[in-house]
C-alpha cells in the first residue's frame, strides 16, 4: 500500500521569509529554524513512519505565496534548497573544513559536521539530516552535499584515523609534533605559556583537562594524547544523531528480520507449505544481513523495502 501512494503529506514551506529572517550571523532565524531546512525539520514530527518509506515523493510541497503546483518538481526543489542551505550558512549543522578556512591543503571546498552544534534543537536537526540521507539512499536520488570523506567514514560506522584528521586539517598533527619533539628546556617551555587547549574543527579552543592550565615539559605527552583523542571523537554526538535519523529514513541492511519478511511475503501459484517455500526460508535464514538486502534489491524494482514474491516458475527452476 505504501508503494502505491504517489506522495506523502502536503507541507507548506515559506521561502519568502528565509532571506527576510537571515540574521547578521548568517543564520535564517534562531539556529536556522526559519530556513526551508528548519521549517521541514519542524514538520517531520507529524510524519508517520510509513511516509518515510515511500518510493518517490516523501512529501508534497506547497510554497506559501508562490503559484507552484508540485507534480514532483516542488519536492525536488525543496530537497535541493535544503542542501544549499546546509552549505551556505543559513543553518548551523555544517562547517567548512579547517583547510577551507585556512585556504591550504586538501578538501578546502568540503564540509564537516559542526561539533559546536550540541543543543537539543541541533540534535533534532542532525536527525533530520539523517532522514534526508536515508531517503536519498533508499530512493536512489543523490543529495548535493559536499561532505568531506571523514564524515562519510563515520556515518558508515568506521573510526577516524590521524590520516583522516590531516585530510581536513593539515596543520593539526605537525603542530602537535612540534610540541612533542621540541627540545626546549623546562624553563623555556614555561616561558611559552602554551594553554592546555586544542582548537576544534570549528576553530573554538577546547580545554582538555581540569588538572592542567598550560603545557609543560612534563605533561606535553599527555597533552598530545588528549588532543588527538578529542579530535578523533569530537563529532561523535552529531554522527550518532545523523545515523539515528538515517535509520528511520530507509530500510537499513541490519533490519531484515525473517518474521517480518514472512509476514509480508506473497506466493503466486505455489502453496505456502510447498517444499519450495520451505527451502526458500531455509536459504534466507542462512543469509547474512547484507545478502538479504542484496536479494531484496534484486528481486524487486530497486527498492529495498519490497517483500519477496515467489511463483511456481521458481519452484520449477529450483527443482
TrEMBL record:
Domain HECT: 50-297
Matching Pfam families: HECT
Chain intervals for the UniProt region annotation (Disordered): 298-319
Keywords: Transferase, Ubl conjugation pathway
KW Transmembrane helix (keyword) present: no
The protein's name: E3 ubiquitin-protein ligase HERC2-like
Gene3D superfamilies named among the record's database cross-references: Hect, E3 ligase catalytic domain, Hect, E3 ligase catalytic domains
SMART domains per UniProt: HECTc (SM00119)
Keyword Transferase: yes
Gene coding for it: LOC123739590
Amino acid at each position: 500500500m505504501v508503494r502505491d501512494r504517489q506522495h506523502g503529506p502536503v507541507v507548506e514551506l515559506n521561502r519568502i521569509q528565509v532571506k527576510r529572517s537571515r540574521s547578521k550571523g548568517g543564520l535564517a532565524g534562531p539556529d536556522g529554524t526559519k530556513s526551508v531546512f528548519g521549517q521541514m525539520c519542524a514538520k517531520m514530527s507529524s510524519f508517520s513512519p510509513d511516509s518515510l518509506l515511500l518510493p518517490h515523493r516523501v512529501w508534497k510541497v506547497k510554497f506559501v505565496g508562490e503559484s507552484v503546483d508540485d507534480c514532483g518538481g516542488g519536492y525536488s526543489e525543496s530537497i535541493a534548497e535544503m542542501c544549499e542551505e546546509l552549505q551556505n550558512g543559513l543553518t548551523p549543522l555544517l562547517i567548512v573544513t579547517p583547510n577551507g578556512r585556512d585556504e591550504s591543503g586538501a578538501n578546502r571546498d568540503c564540509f564537516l559536521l559542526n561539533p559546536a552544534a550540541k543543543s537539543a534543537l541541533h540534535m533534532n536537526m542532525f536527525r533530520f539530516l539523517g532522514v534526508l540521507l536515508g531517503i536519498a539512499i533508499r530512493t536512489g536520488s543523490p543529495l548535493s552535499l559536499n561532505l568531506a570523506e571523514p564524515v562519510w567514514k563515520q556515518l558508515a560506522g568506521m573510526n577516524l584515523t590521524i590520516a583522516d584528521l590531516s585530510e581536513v586539517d593539515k596543520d593539526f598533527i605537525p603542530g602537535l609534533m612540534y610540541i612533542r619533539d621540541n627540545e626546549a628546556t623546562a624553563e623555556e617551555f614555561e616561558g611559552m605559556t602554551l594553554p592546555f587547549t586544542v582548537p576544534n574543527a570549528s576553530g573554538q579552543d577546547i580545554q582538555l583537562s581540569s588538572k592542567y592550565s598550560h603545557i609543560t615539559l612534563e605533561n606535553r605527552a599527555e597533552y598530545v594524547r588528549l588532543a588527538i583523542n578529542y579530535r578523533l571523537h569530537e563529532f561523535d554526538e552529531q554522527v550518532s544523531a545523523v545515523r539515528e535519523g538515517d535509520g528511520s529514513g530507509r530500510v537499513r541492511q541490519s533490519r531484515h528480520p525473517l518474521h517480518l519478511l514472512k509476514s509480508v511475503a506473497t506466493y503466486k501459484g505455489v502453496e505456502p507449505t510447498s517444499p519450495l517455500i520451505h527451502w526458500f526460508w531455509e536459504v534466507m535464514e542462512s543469509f547474512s544481513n547484507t545478502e538479504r538486502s542484496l536479494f531484496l534489491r534484486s528481486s524487486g524494482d530497486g527498492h529495498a523495502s519490497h517483500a519477496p514474491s515467489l511463483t511456481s516458475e521458481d519452484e520449477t527452476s529450483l527443482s
